[in-house]
Amino acid sequence: MNLELINPYVMKILIAARREDSIRAISGRIGLSYGWTYKWVQDLAQLGVFKLTRMKTYLNENNLFYKRTLSYIKINFLRDVNFYYSVLNLFGISYCFTQTDAVFIWTRGGYNIARYKNFYPIFINVRKRDKKLFEEYCKKLNLSKTSKKRCFYQVYYLDNFDFRYCDGIPVDTLEETISFMKKNKYNFEPALEMIKEMHKKRIKVKYKEIITNV
User: Fold this and answer.
1) In the chain, fewer beta carbons within 10 Å around the N or the C end?
2) Which pLDDT score, from 0 to 100, does residue 212 have?
3) Which of 128, 87, 109, 121 is nearest to 191 (CA)?
């Protein structure tokens, strides 16, 4: 086996690849040029990971290299919160972050609440038409949607939803996020103040951290 195959691009290809796929579609999902994606898929095909036709790629899920690489990914990354966030881009689905995660993103990581190492829900909207696809990827990678322990997705399947990009991340609109915070003012008054200052929004908030001299 060529040691060059042990690299981040190959890992992304194996995560993103579907049972029946195409090199161009895989290239789009992993954000790598078609030429380089073609090269790595061809190399993987020589190992028996893919069967290739002129237009299609067919994944051999029983291939030893494929199984061992996925096992490595699951052993090393499943407890990493960042992996749950970043891997969504490889699925090729319509999604956005919502609720607590929308607050976290619009405050640019400045406000996070009610989450910790052993209980870390990630709140996302997923388009209903992509539900089956999303769940197939979760099953493939052992990503949790129901455990309520450690890191897991709290998913809302919707026919449609409006979203914006904040620093390149798909997220509820700022207006929707502000509305969510106002409905849960007790938890999010500090975040409302941050949003008011960061995004120059007219929001009535009374919260201010009290500084005392000892």
Assistant:
1) C
2) 42
3) 109
